[in-house]
Design goal:
Layout (H helix, E strand, L loop, with lengths): L1 E4 L5 E5 L5 H10 L5 E5 L20 E7 L8 H19 L4 E3 L3 E4 L2 E11 L5 E8 L17 H5 L5 H20 L4 H11 L6 E5 L4 E9 L5 E5 L4 E4 L3 E4 L2
Parallel strand pairs: 2-3
Antiparallel strand pairs: 1-2, 3-4, 4-8, 5-6, 6-7, 7-8, 9-10, 9-13, 10-11, 11-12
Length: 247
């Protein structure tokens, strides 16, 4: 295990392999620790929303940020902040204009680059864990996801320094976390998120646990829920679901 102390108020613990950075982060939470980042070179049981498997071979960036925010009522904004941090960092380092897709993906040319998973752990002391999985140096993917996934290496035809990208993402994230989230300036996060989101204004199909909806995305509300103008003209709030953009 390697401990890296950065200039920012957090520590990064890197592991060659973990079952899941989220699971390891939960072990740290039990010790009451926060402002810590857990990263791994590969994951055996990486997962995203709804426990969906996240392909986690060597070459990707896998990290979980452990936080102890005073405000745990709006942790969905931390997903937005993480997505912004990813987009800004890969623009600086890879010169790539990626986009955010509601609720938790970063993609390029219709293919997924990054997924984000935010989990709250509530008790005597509340914690939040923000997990980030970014495809960096992979040059191939399993057959089940190869048609809708990509990596920085596939796009730019070069290898990237994962440690540098991770430091960039974490730095950008903590700027948003301290400057806006902790100061309850949540609209600032929303405005930045909207700047990089290409879901707004698109005609989409949204698959929720109950049904499939069709309409045009007109924005998000104060809870980060999607506002969907249905084909019939009524606007519906969608709390969670998978979006398929009708290009």
């Amino acid at each position: 295990m390697v401990l890296e102390i950065t200039k920012m108020p957090y520590k990064i613990y890197n592991f060659p392999s973990l079952a899941s950075t989220q699971d390891k982060a939960k072990e740290f939470v039990k010790k009451g620790l926060s402002n810590i980042v857990i990263s791994a070179d590969r994951q055996a049981k990486g997962h995203g929303r709804f426990k969906r498997k996240w392909h986690s071979a060597k070459g990707g960036l896998y990290a979980s940020i452990i936080l102890n925010p005073e405000n745990t009522e709006n942790i969905q904004y931390l997903t937005f902040a993480a997505a912004i941090a990813v987009v800004k960092s890969i623009k600086k380092i890879a010169n790539l204009d990626a986009a955010i897709k509601w609720p938790n993906d970063v993609h390029y040319n219709k293919r997924k680059l990054c997924g984000i998973l935010t989990e709250g752990i509530f008790g005597a002391k509340n914690h939040v864990i923000v997990g980030i999985g970014l495809n960096v140096n992979q040059d191939k993917f399993p057959k089940s996801i190869k048609n809708n996934s990509t990596s920085l290496k596939i796009i730019k035809h070069e290898d990237f320094n994962i440690k540098r990208i991770l430091n960039g993402i974490i730095r950008e994230f903590f700027i948003l976390y301290n400057k806006y989230y902790n100061e309850n300036k949540l609209k600032k996060i929303t405005r930045l998120w909207e700047k990089y989101c290409d879901t707004i204004g698109k005609n989409v199909a949204v698959i929720t646990r109950e049904k499939k909806l069709h309409g045009r995305v007109v924005g998000v509300d104060e809870n980060c829920s999607l506002l969907l103008k249905l084909d019939g003209g009524r606007t519906k709030k969608v709390i969670e679901g998978d979006i398929h953009v009708r290009y």
